[in-house]
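Item description
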Amino acid sequence: MGTELVRTTVDEHGVAEVVVDCPPVNALPVAGWYRLAETVGQLGREPGVRVVLLRAEGRGFNAGVDIKEIQADSGHTAIVGVNRGCFAAFAAIYDCAVPVVSAVQGFCLGGGIGLVGNSDVIVAAEDAYFGLPEVDRGALGAATHLSRLVPQHKARAMMYTCATASAAELHAFGSVLDVVPNDRLRERALEIAGEIAGKNPVVMRAAKEAFNGIDLWDVKRSYRYEQGFTFEVNLSGVAHEVRDAFGQRADEEG
């Protein structure tokens, strides 16, 4: 099952491994976000699946959305599509009927924060770092999910300055369960996924639903509220200018 952007395998223990592979930096296009949402949602509905492990190939877990796809669109189709696609992917992880374990290496930025922030368990490689550089990209959003990873004032500072936090910092906050050498990331994530898969599946699915039911805020409604401001700065034309400036800097540095 899957495409070249999203590959899936399910082992004999019910561990479904979802691998994102979108070179060079796993910045997903609109279709990629929707594909990821469909994949995770479908896996959660399969009786034989007991846990989902989400990971990525390459030097980083996720660099967010494909900005070039947005800039190439003279209208608003791409920005609406990517916002809806991200919403669908983040919601699919949150609503997945079984626990989702995310294994993070390298950079986890923008949309990557939405993915791991809605995951149930996070394992990170020693080189992993997390950030929400949206204001430098002409966008807003995923503060909802960043606030699930770091304390409130840390989240605000990260959003306003585009600073990142290390895997060690998030481990100290308690949001990252374990930090391991890069070459042990998949192994450790599979160990945790395997432990979850070994529990009674009926009880585990009930546990996931129960945790979602006692969350302090509705992450989907909160994120949708944020997206309204993304649309606002795009309609004003400011977002396009900011993305152009970012693209120019990236080309010069590259």
The chain is about 50% helix and 15% strand. The longest strand covers residues 15-20. The chain has a mean pLDDT of 93. Residues 34 and 84 are 8 Å apart (CA to CA).
